[in-house]
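> @MW can you paste both from yesterday?
MW: sure, first one:
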Amino acid sequence: MRFSQFAGILGCTTAAFISIAPIQVEAATFKVISGVTSIDRDHENILRNIELILTGTNQTVAPIPSNYLVGFNIDSATNFTFSDEGGFTPLSGTFEHNGTVTFNNQITVGEFSVGFAPGRTTKDASGFVLRDTFSLNTILFDLSIAEPVAFDGQNLTIPDVKLLISPEFASILQKPELTGLFAGTARIDAQVAAVPEPDSVLAVLAAGAALLATRFYTRKIKYS
C-alpha cells in the first residue's frame, strides 16, 4: 500500500474515532504520592488519662501544622486513590507511613497503615481505620473524617480526623469500656498525581498518529 493511501486511511480512521468518541468532562482519578500525617497534642493528653504516656519517637517528622505533636511521613508504598467527583470520593488503597512511637517505655507502635475496612462504618466512624503494622499488627483507631476535605488538583488536605479507640485496641489494654472513646485528632496533608484514564490515553495516541500521518503526507506531496 502506498504511504499516501495509508495516511488517508489513518486520517479517516482517526476522524471517525474522534466523531464517535467526543471529549467529555468526567471525574478524574488521583493517587497519593507523598505527604505527612500529623497527630494533634490532644491525643497525648487523652492517652495520658488512660495511663498511656508517650516516652519516645523514632523516624518521625515535623507535623503540619507546627503546633501539632508529631508527624509521620507518607511513604512510597502508599497506593491510595480517589476521584474528584463530588470534591473527594475515595476509591481504593491505603496510606502507608514511616515512624514509630513508644508508650510507657514498653509498647512501640507505628509504621501505620490507613485505609478503608468494610463493615466498620457506623454513625460515628467513617469506615477508615488506622492500623499498627510494627508490633501489634492490629487496628488501633477507627477514624471519623469530617467535612470538608480540601483538594486543589495537586494537594489533598483531610483535617480534623477524629481517632476513636478500636475494640481491638481496647481489648489489648484490657479495658473494653474504652471502645469508641475519642482519643485525639489527626490531619493528612498529601501531594497527589493524576492517574491517566485509559480513554484519554487512547485519544492522545489517536491524535498523535493523525498528526504524524499528516506531517509525512505533507512532506511526500512537497517532494513529489
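MW: second:
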Amino acid sequence: MSDEQTPAGNPEPGGSGPGAPERGGPEPAEIRFFGTTWVHHDGGYGLRRAGVAVGSLALAAAGAVVLRFAFQGLEIAAVGRFVGILVVAGFAICSALAFRRTWDGFVRRPDPAARSAADTSSQGLMLIGFIGSLLAYFCRSLVEAPGEKLHRAEYAAARERHERRRGARTGNPAAKKSRPKKRR
C-alpha cells in the first residue's frame, strides 16, 4: 500500500500537528503493526515497537526449536554426519540471505524493473531462512519501526512535491490577466 494513497476522508492519527498532511495532500503509508503511528510516534508507538521486537524474537526462538526437532529426526534416521552438516549449513546460509534481503527491504525499495526470475526463485530460500528474516525484523525494531526510515523519506518527498505543485498554483490567474499592462 505504500504506492497508493489513502482517501482524504481518513484523518491521520495524531491530529493536525506539524507535519500532518493537509486536506488533499499526500497521506502517509501504513506500516504493518504500526499503521500511521510512525509519523508522530504516537498511539502506542513505543509499545508496538516493543511488542514487535519481543514477538519476532519469540517467533525466531520457536522456529529454532522446530528446526532442532527436525535435526533430531535426522539424527534418529541415522542419515550420517555429512547430511547433518549440509542441513545445518543450508539453514545457516538461507537465514543469512533472508536476513540481508529483509534488511535491504527496510532501507530501499526494490527496483520493479530489476525484478528477475532469480528474485522469484529465491522465495524458497527466504522461506527456508525464515529465522534470519525474523531476526532482521527484531534488530530493526530495536531502532525504529521496520521500514520507518524508508517510509519517512518517501512521505517527506511526497509532501515536498505536493508543496511545490501547490506553490506553483498560488494566486488568482484571472486577476493577473485583468491588470492593464504598462506602456513604455
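> thanks! The longest helix spans residues 45-76.
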